[in-house]
Amino acid sequence: MTIRALIVDDSALIRRVLSDILNEDPKIKVVGTAVNGKDGLEKVKKLRPDVVLLDNVMPVLDGLTTLARIMRECPTPAVIVSALGEKAEEITLTALEYGAVDVIEKPSGILSQSMPEMAEGICRNVRTASKANLKNLECMRDLELQNPEKGEKKETRFRKKAASVRNILAIGASTGGPRALEKLISSFPAEIPAAVLVVQHMPPGFTASLSKRLDAKSALRVKEAQEGDRVEEGTVLIAPGNYHMEIVRNKVNGPEEEVVHLSCSPKELGSRPSVNVLFRSIASVYGSRVISLVLTGMNCDGADGAEEIKKMGGKIIAEARSSCVVYGMPGEIVRRNLADLVLPLDKMAEEIIRLIE
Asked: How far apart are CA 132 and CA 128, in angstroms?
C-alpha cells in the first residue's frame, strides 16, 4: 500500500526537495504541500494523509500549535523536519512530547555527496511513521514526574567515586524513544545501584537537548556522553548523535576504570549511534551485571548485541507491543527468543529495581 505524505513548510525550496526525495521512493507518494501551519491543518483534514512532514518554525500558525491541533482534531502520524540550532532542538523535543512520531534534520547541502544517504534516511523515517501506533503517542507534558531528592544527591554522587559499578542498565531506543525514556528514567530512584547507558537514534545536536530535558525531570544525573566519561552509578550517559558509544577499560595513573569511547566508525544497520555497538562493548566488560532494555523503534538494532549480552549471562528486557509506538526493535528481540522479560513501559522501572536490589 502506498504511503500518502503531506509536506508542510514555508520554504518553497524545502517543499520541492522533500517532494523529490519522497516521490523517488516507490512506497511513498506526496499528495500535497502546504505553506504554513494553518494551510497544513486544512489540508490534513481534506487530504487525510498517512504521514505529515511538519516544519517546526512557520508563520501564521507555528509547528507546535499545528501539531497539537492535528493530534486533537485529526490524529495523523507527524514527523518534525527541523533545522539545527539550540532553539530548534528544544522546540523539536517539545513536539515529541506533543505527539510527533519522530524528528528528521532539514535537508541541507543539497548537492553534497551525503544527500543520497540523507534522502534514504528521510524515506525510512516516513515509512516508519506510517506504522506508528498513535494511541501510544500520549502527550507526556501532563505527567507529574516526582523528583523530591534531585539536586543535592546528584552533586554528591558526582563527586563520590564508587569502587565498582554494581549494575549496568543499557537502553536502546529509536522511534518513540524520547517519550519512553522520559517516562522510564524519571521513574528511577536517586539511589539506584546502577549506571545507565542509553543509545537513542537522533540526529546530531538533538541528544544534548534531550539529555538536558531528562536531567531536569529525573532524580538521576543525565548528560550527553563525552570521550573519557567515567561510568558511574546514578548517572545516565546518552550517546551523542552521529557517534557510536562503547565502554572500554582504561588505566591512567591509577586503578583501571570503565570509560566512554566515542567513534565515527561506519554506521550499523543505517544508524550511528548504534545499539548493537554499545551492547557488544558492555557484554565483555560487565557480563552478568548487565540488564539491557530494548524499547520502541523500527528495524532490529540491538538484537545482535543482545545475543552477546545473553551469552555473557546478562538479562534482556523487551518493551511489550502494547506500549510501543513502533514494535520493530523489541519485536525482533522477542522473535529471536532473547527476552527474559517482556514488559509494558509503565511496569519496567518497578521490575528493574526488584532485579538489582
From this structure: 7
